[in-house]
Specification:
Elements: E1 6-17, E2 20-32, E3 37-41, H1 48-56, E4 64-73, E5 76-77, H2 83-89, E6 94-97, H3 101-104, H4 111-121, H5 126-139, H6 145-149, H7 158-169, E7 176-180, H8 188-205, E8 208-213, H9 216-222, E9 225-230, E10 233-239, H10 240-245, H11 250-257, E11 307-309, E12 312-314, H12 319-322, E13 331-332
Helix pairs in contact: 4-5, 4-7, 5-7, 7-8
Length: 343
């Protein structure tokens, strides 16, 4: 298949809060190709999960709204669909593994009922739903699926609950799988098993994965392309190798430098001073300026556009000055305004 299967264009999402309007997602663009994985990384509060919920049209009501943009699945704009029309896509063509399986699974229904529910909702019979549930539980590596089928979420370990969430998401062989922190709170061994399972299933089904995480180790292992989000915007977009070997944006560099390594053993870990600004009062200029070691006065004047350097795109006016030797000169992406919104 040629071209992206999922394309997000200039997505802007806001939330009504007691402190005012929070522009949680502000002009986000990216694509995901079939059989490929795009990771969205960044600190908490940067808009990663709200981006996913906007795509799925599962924003918290009545506070959340998609203000503008497009979410194209096989060329069809999902934002043009009614709630009932979106239900036909959700769980069939587009599925999501939610962040915390203990709160995402219903405590009063058995695992079998919850896995079969999506199959039945899209036209399957109860008998087919049960058969499919057994197949899926076995496929995601759960021992004795007949027994687990009759159990409740609290009777399972964290790793087993996460496998159940994957089984539910895969019930109808979706084209795109959104995984929001799929390894949160899991120990290292179980995390490796879950990631290996996701890779196997992706290879088997050829589906696209949108992976949301703050764990750069998971990104290195899973992703083909990476969008680095900060304060509701994509600050850098690049193939995964470029992110780790040739990062362009100061925020990406700071994230990488804060990772523990053998060289940092016995030393204080590098930290990024300060915190993400409030989504109700974004800064006028570069949103990373108050934490950036490369900041100059011009950084606070206006939101930088995206610039392209080789295979990367980064939102920084100082790329030429802070780039490593050998990098090519950055050029502004045609057609993009200073606010990061495609004209």
């Amino acid at each position: 298949m040629s071209g992206p299967i999922l394309e997000v264009r200039n997505l802007r999402t806001y939330l009504k809060t007691v402190r005012g309007t929070a522009w949680a997602v502000d002009g986000v663009n990216f694509t995901v190709e079939a059989g490929k994985t795009r990771a969205i990384v960044g600190e908490s509060g940067c808009g990663k999960s709200i981006t996913a919920l906007s795509i799925m049209q599962l924003l918290p009501e009545p506070a959340g709204f998609v203000d503008s943009g497009q979410v194209l699945l096989d060329g069809k704009d999902l934002l043009d669909l009614t709630w009932n029309q979106m239900r036909d896509y959700r769980g069939r063509d587009l599925a999501m593994i939610f962040q915390e399986p203990m709160t995402s699974l219903n405590p009063v229904f058995t695992i079998g009922n919850q896995v079969a529910e999506s199959v039945i909702a899209h036209g399957g019979t109860k008998a087919h739903g049960r058969t499919r549930a057994l197949e899926l539980l076995d496929r995601v590596g759960i021992e004795d699926p007949h027994r687990v089928l009759r159990q409740y979420p609290h009777e399972l370990s964290g790793g087993m609950r996460q496998r159940v969430m994957i089984a539910i998401a895969l019930a109808n062989n979706p084209k795109v799988l959104i995984a929001d922190e799929p390894t949160t709170a899991l120990d290292v061994t179980v995390q490796a098993q879950i990631l290996s399972l996701m890779r196997e299933i992706q290879t088997e089904m050829g589906m696209a994965i949108l992976l949301i995480t703050h764990d750069l180790g998971v990104v290195a292992e899973m992703a083909d392309d990476v969008s680095v989000m900060y304060a509701g915007m994509v600050m850098e977009d690049a193939p995964v190798r470029e992110i780790f070997h040739n990062p362009q944006h100061p925020y990406t560099r700071d994230l990488l430098e804060s990772l523990p390594s053998r060289q940092s053993r016995g030393k204080d870990l590098a930290v990024i001073e300060g915190s993400v600004p409030s989504a109700t009062h974004w800064p006028k200029g570069c949103r990373y300026a108050n934490r950036c070691r490369f900041r100059i006065d011009a950084c606070e004047a206006a939101v930088p556009p995206l610039f392209v350097r080789g295979a990367s795109e980064a939102r920084c006016i100082r790329l030429d000055e802070i780039a490593e030797k050998g990098n090519t000169a950055a050029t502004r992406i045609p057609g993009e305004s200073g606010k990061g919104v495609v004209a």
